[in-house]
Design goal:
alpha+beta, six-stranded mixed beta sheet
């Protein structure tokens, strides 16, 4: 494993452009192998390491893992960066929290590479998960060993290794890995074993599909490289299939835009039919189009612009940013529930200067609460505030104020159910 790892890493030129490398370490077998390999070969690779760890607070062992990794970093004389997950836990919410934290550390501390322990087994699981979820073809393609991330690159040097290749270094076993409550666990522990009964090499077959897809997309990329996507005269001369591909390529430049199929189709329709047009997209992105060209840009925080607030005045289902809100209609999979003492309209908006929230008997400015709870900067910028009658009742997927928690059942006049979009 060791010699092969060094060869794969050097042949792949993974760290040629990097000196400061941040390693995401959970404490499990995969990430502990990754850390020990990088630490052992740090001189050969000419890199300085730092450990980034997120305590998700979902298991009793979380504190033991945190303390062990902190001690390991001290013994190895390398920096250790820690974040505690806040808010309603879900796989997607935890993933977004992790990568926002990693990006913050990279930008603040000058790291140019984030390294994760994804391996060949993860690759097959991820592709199958995306197939089941109905992802676009381009998202079924193989996981890239190197891709842009934050102010540098995300590097996955273990993709050519299976978990069975790893050394049995000291690590923590996560009992929740056996729980079928999580989608990836169902794929790993239930779906793949059943598929192996039909094809014992199902992981290889799935990974081959991903590789074939990547090669097909690269061929299309090569064939269309001279076409201008944003020039509408050129764009409209192409077939509908080519237009769709070109727009997909353009949208891929904005990894945090994350358009759904219906939202993508809406953008494509606008480009095919509308004249001068300005259309607000997800996550503070805006589409601007004139007769000759179009652009998609992110509204920068320095402009102080946000998605327009919405006022919820009647029962029903509403959408804002990456979330769905339901007033007085229960959602079984709601990630957050807020209670209100009156039928007054409920305001859903972005954060504002001077916002305050009362939690556990203490009223704090929202800015101070974010700092005290070490909320990543990106999460702060995208925070969604729930307000009624000028008072904050919650921060979506982060906190519920005492105002919501303390209402007795007999005086609850309205209930807001919140969940992240699929």
């Amino acid at each position: 494993m060791k010699n092969k790892f060094l060869k794969v890493t050097l042949d792949g030129h993974f760290f040629d452009k990097h000196e400061k490398v941040l390693v995401a370490v959970s404490g499990g077998l995969d990430s502990m192998n990754l850390f020990h390999l990088l630490y052992e070969y740090r001189q050969e690779l000419s890199i300085e390491l730092g450990i980034a760890h997120i305590n998700h607070g979902q298991r009793e062992e979380s504190v033991l893992e945190e303390n062990y990794l902190k001690q390991l970093a001290e013994e190895c004389k390398i920096p250790f960066y820690l974040s505690h997950f806040k808010g309603r836990f879900s796989e997607e919410a935890a993933r977004k929290w992790r990568y926002a934290f990693f990006a913050d550390i990279m930008e603040q501390e000058g790291y140019t590479a984030l390294v994760t322990a994804h391996h060949a087994d993860d690759q097959a699981e991820t592709v199958l998960m995306r197939l089941i979820r109905g992802s676009r073809l381009r998202h079924i393609s193989a996981i890239q060993p190197i891709q842009p991330f934050a102010n540098g690159e995300l590097i996955r040097p273990l993709l050519s290794f299976k978990k069975s290749d790893f050394n049995n270094v000291f690590h923590f076993e996560d009992a929740s890995n056996q729980s079928l409550n999580y989608f990836r666990n169902r794929v790993r522990n239930d779906y793949l074993p059943k598929l192996k009964q039909e094809n014992p090499k199902i992981e290889l077959a799935v990974n081959n599909l991903a590789t074939d897809t990547r090669n097909l997309l690269q061929a299309l990329r090569d064939l269309t490289k001279d076409l201008s996507v944003t020039d509408l005269t050129s764009f409209r001369q192409q077939t509908r299939a080519v237009q769709r591909y070109l727009l997909e390529e353009y949208v891929e430049k904005f990894p945090d835009l994350q358009l759904s199929r219906s939202q993508f189709d809406e953008v494509l329709h606008i480009l095919q039919s509308k004249a001068n047009y300005k259309h607000l997209l997800k996550n503070n992105y805006v589409l601007e189009k004139d007769y000759h060209s179009f652009t998609i840009d992110k509204i920068g925080p320095q402009t102080d612009e946000q998605i327009e607030p919405i006022m919820i005045e009647s029962e029903g289902i509403f959408s804002y940013g990456s979330y769905i809100f339901s007033l007085n209609h229960p959602m079984a999979d709601a990630e957050q529930v807020l209670h209100f003492p009156s039928h007054l309209p409920i305001l859903v908006r972005g954060r504002q200067a001077g916002d305050t929230i009362r939690i556990n008997g203490v009223t704090k400015k929202l800015r101070r609460w974010f700092i005290d709870n070490k909320i990543p900067q990106k999460v702060r910028q995208e925070a969604i505030i729930i307000e009624q009658a000028g008072k904050i009742y919650g921060i979506v997927n982060l906190a519920s104020s005492d105002l919501s928690k303390s209402i007795k059942n007999d005086i609850i006049k309205a209930t807001l159910y919140i969940k992240m979009k699929e």
